[in-house]
Amino acid sequence: MVFRNSYDSDNTVFSPQGRLHQVEYALEAVRQGSAAVGLRSNTHAILLTLKRSTGELASYQQKAFKIDDHLGIAIAGLTSDARVLSNYMRNQAMSSRLLYGRPIPVNRIVSQIAEKAQLATQQYGRRPYGVGFLVIGQDQTGPHLHEFSPDGNALEYVAMSIGARSQMAKTYLEKEHDKLAECSLDELIHHGLQSLKASLQQSKTLTPLNTSIAIVGPPGPNESGVKSEGSFRILEGDNAKPYIDALGQEEQTQAQTQPTQQRDVTMQE
Amino acid sequence: MNMSNNFTSWGRPFTDAKMDMYGGDVTQRYQLGAQQMTVPDDKFSEGVQKTQQPIVTGTSVIGLKFKDGIMLAADNLASYGSLARFKDIQRLYGVGSNTIIGAAGDMSDFQHVQHQLDTLITDEYCHDDGHSLGPAQIYEYMSTLMYHRRSQLNPLWNAFVVGGVDPKSGESTLAYVDLLGTTYSAPTIGTGYASMIAIPLLRRLVEDRQEPLNKEDALDIIKTCMKVLFYRDARSLNKFQVATITKEGSEISQSMSVDTEWGFAEGIRGYGGQTQ
Amino acid sequence: MSSIGTGYDLSASTYSPDGRIFQIEYANKAVENAGTVIGIRTKDGVILAAQKLLDSKLLVSGTAKRILTADMHIGMASAGLRADGKHLQTRAREECKNYRDNYMSPIPLKHLSDRLGSYLNAYTLYSSVRPFGISTVISSCDKNGPQLYAIEPSGLYWGYQATAIGKGKQLAQTELEKLNFDELSMRQAVFEAARIIHLVHDPTKDKGFELEISWIGKDSQYKHVHVPAQLYDEANELGKTQAESGRMQE
Q: Which residue numbers delimit the Proteasome alpha-type subunits domain (chain C) (predicted)?
């Protein structure tokens, strides 16, 4: 086997520049997964994911997972690594409820998996995890969005994207990020879909089949059966359709009307 | 390559042994063909004794809910059997800035619990993330701890009253947990002797009251109860402290006492040096 | 001798023919690329200051703190791989907890430095692990008085009157050496630290940053905390203008 250089064969080797190549390659594994986008306002945190399908007869993958009533994740990268970590997260969340009667603070559960991931960057015989998460949740201190990455970092963002072609989504978010805090849920989802759409290849579009939307925070005008405190939920298929339709119709009429007005009209349908 | 193709002998993937609050490794349950952990045989296990009785004890704790929060009281005595051994023991203890617990029962077990709670609060402090444990969470923790210990047949020999006000929601908590892991919550609470002597008084003065109860009146009620308890409870002391917890914070008073009248006692058979 | 391509630099358990362990030197490279951290020990307390470089403008401000707490009376700030710093905090917390469990008193900083030094050193002894890619400054103030230590990836640790690690180490150290430690109060040190962190930051080359300052001493009731918002704002603003005028003069 030919290595790209002598300092990347395992994760116990620093390069002369003080870098860890194996860890950087694990970050590449995250970029192989399909994109996920997360955003946060003063009242809500949401995730939007792009699901892949292996063919016309195959179902679409699952990209968003519930961890606890107040907490959920979107993944990009190796799904089986995600299963190990999300199983761990569910245990941690459950133990917080059992021991303290408290929904686990979002930053803490993210740090806990980050600490696990860090160990795998420092010892021989284990590879770093090949998956990245966007984690949303609400706790004592409001709604939150965190990114977990295999290098053992867990950081809090107002908006973030991970996965394939996520740089395009990030560019959109960086442009719009200071508007997000005051957004309503529907506006936030709209920004999220715009951002996710930016990551698509030219020929592709967002459809109710390939898109899922996950939310924490009070129910929006299109939602029914959600409790007022707004626990974690995933909208797919028909439930996601109104939001995606709103996105498409707006595009066609963009030239004639203000986007915000148009969105309000279509949302009421 | 000389490698076994029986995958169960390859060792376990990385797991975090700390994940289970009971000290077990939860992930192991999902491990295919994981080797059963064998517990080493303790030759002395037959000789190990669990706590059978308390040694140095505190008597009752009382607590009530008033308009702005919670008030607790406990005297300063720690008895060794019927001997009034220590007369300056504090049985009220602050946990964080919004919770106070009162302890009856074994004082060394109480000290152990204080240390556990200190560790918990320090852990919370080190997170430095704006989250804190309110009285409801501390109560939940103590309930889990007490039930867990009784399930191991090695109880912490106490009855605790937990009082506090959540600084964020303003919600007040007054609750009880004992060595059996029994829990309940009520507007008035008394442990041990107080559950018989003080509770009827507290219910009449607090729960049957029509108008809201202010801090001054609450303190009068507490003093009345402590006086009656001192009259009736042979393991009590007329020197006690009162804890007050409101949304603003908590404080534990200096020791205080109440005026008592013993003149009538001369006529009671069994009092003092009478032999008959 | 050059390290690259010799094969003597691929493991922490390998010496080069001239007796060096290159993997530890490479770990130090990770430290040298990181935002600056400084610590100042004054007569009435110790302060830590960190330059938190912002990798993204989407980060929520005030989160992902670089100055961490290991016990009520112990602060720590690492320069290098952020995740390694978190790992060391967890270890430090355990050490503090064990000490309290055994001795029912807060751990002396000298003792903690020794424990953490040994821990970091253990990661330089085997090929199956890599050294920590961090240097860490730790602070405390208790009945032994104000104390400040810094630990290196090799496990080496020293006590300091003042120290700096990370990118701006050289310049910061020069500035620190000018201070009069006989006179300096903890409050004054906050302002000096803010000024130095702003000074080592080159706004034309470096990405944006957030300043962080913590203290422990009489002013903080002997608890390790980030300095109060009002003092922080004052020090941050003043530090910024002082650094700017300093650069103008050059």
A: 8-30
